[in-house]
């Protein structure tokens, strides 16, 4: 039987795995599923059509699966799916999807969400991501694997954050950020590649070298973006990380691509 504290309130119908642990004063709704090894430390509220994957730990005062902060939401039976082995710290909030966004908010495996982080409706977060304190996503945001969002950063709705991106603390991200990049600023600008993250993830030296050359070419002042993109595609077609950036830029999006600052600071 799961380890459930006598002060916890578990609604009839909730599916609790035998090895799950639910601490003091937690509230779990009737449609919630907690997989093997899930731990709700205490004072956690989980509701809605929410699934929490095996080995995930949720700390006090987190709120998962409650009604989205979207005035267009009309009570549709949307879902929140959280993957395996995540650390969800105090006061984190995650909302389910909406009819306007595919009815699903999804979080991958092995992520760390620090105090006060927020994942809004219809977001998709990859594996191995880190959200520092009070990092927040608006609705419909996509975050690639191993991205890091610094403390007090905020991401505009419908923005795409690529794989292994580093978002600096207190950064406001209103445009798409290419994979492997670093961004910072009140309104985010590219500050180069996330070289520290690339090395930590074990990316091959030749791939890092190719990424640096491709980055310089992509954001050179000469020519148009379309022309530079075609040149990069031809020169670096054998480098998978570079081609990932090319495909990212070519993908249709409602947001522009985040750019470096110009030499005049604009």
Textual characterization of the structure:
With 266 residues, this protein is an alpha/beta fold. The chain folds into two domains: 3-140, UDP N-Acetylglucosamine Acyltransferase, domain 1 (3 Solenoid), CATH 2.160.10.10; 199-250, Up-down Bundle (Udp N-acetylglucosamine O-acyltransferase, Domain 2). Helix content is 16%, strand content 25%. It has helices at residues 195-200, 205-218, 225-235, 240-250; strands at residues 3-4, 9-10, 15-16, 21-22, 27-28, 33-34, 39-40, 45-46, 49-52, 57-58, 63-64, 79-82, 87-88, 93-94, 104-107, 112-113, 118-119, 124-125, 130-131, 136-137, 142-143, 148-149, 154-155, 160-161, 166-167, 172-173, 181-184, 189-193. An eleven-stranded mixed beta sheet has the order 1-4-7-10-13-16-19-22-25-27-28. The longest helix has 14 residues, at 205-218. The termini are far apart. The model has no long low-confidence stretch (mean pLDDT 97).
Summarize the structure.
The protein is an alpha/beta fold and 266 residues long. It has helices at 195-200, 205-218, 225-235, 240-250, and strands at 3-4, 9-10, 15-16, 21-22, 27-28, 33-34, 39-40, 45-46, 49-52, 57-58, 63-64, 79-82, 87-88, 93-94, 104-107, 112-113, 118-119, 124-125, 130-131, 136-137, 142-143, 148-149, 154-155, 160-161, 166-167, 172-173, 181-184, 189-193.
Mean pLDDT comes to 97
Distance between the termini: 61 Å
Provide the structure class: alpha/beta
How many strands, what sense, and barrel or not for the largest sheet? 11 strands, mixed
Radius of gyration: 20 Å
């Amino acid at each position: 039987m799961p380890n459930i504290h006598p002060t916890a309130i578990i609604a009839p119908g909730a599916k609790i795995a035998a090895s799950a642990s639910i601490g003091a004063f937690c509230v779990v709704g009737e449609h919630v599923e907690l997989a093997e090894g899930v731990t709700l430390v205490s004072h956690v509220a989980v509701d809605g059509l929410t699934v929490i994957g095996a080995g995930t730990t949720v700390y006090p005062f987190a709120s998962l699966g409650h009604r989205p902060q979207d005035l267009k939401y009309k009570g549709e039976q949307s879902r929140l799916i959280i993957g395996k082995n995540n650390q969800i710290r105090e006061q984190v909030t995650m909302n389910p999807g909406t009819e306007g966004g595919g009815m699903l908010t999804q979080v991958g495996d092995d992520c760390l969400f620090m105090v006060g982080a927020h994942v809004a409706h219809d977001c998709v977060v990859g594996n191995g991501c880190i959200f520092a304190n009070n990092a927040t996503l608006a609705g419909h945001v996509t975050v690639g694997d191993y991205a890091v969002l610094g403390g007090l950063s905020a991401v505009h709705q419908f923005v795409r954050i690529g794989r292994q991106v580093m978002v600096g603390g207190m950064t406001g991200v209103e445009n798409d950020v290419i994979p492997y990049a670093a961004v910072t600023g009140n309104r985010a600008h590219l500050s180069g590649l996330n070289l520290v993250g690339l090395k930590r993830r074990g990316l091959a030296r030749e791939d890092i070298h190719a990424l640096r050359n491709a980055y310089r070419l992509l954001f050179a002042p000469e020519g148009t973006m379309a022309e530079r993109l075609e040149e990069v595609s031809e020169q670096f077609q054998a480098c998978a990380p570079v081609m990932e950036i090319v495909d990212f830029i070519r993908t249709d999006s409602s947001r522009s691509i985040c750019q470096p600052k110009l030499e005049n600071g604009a």
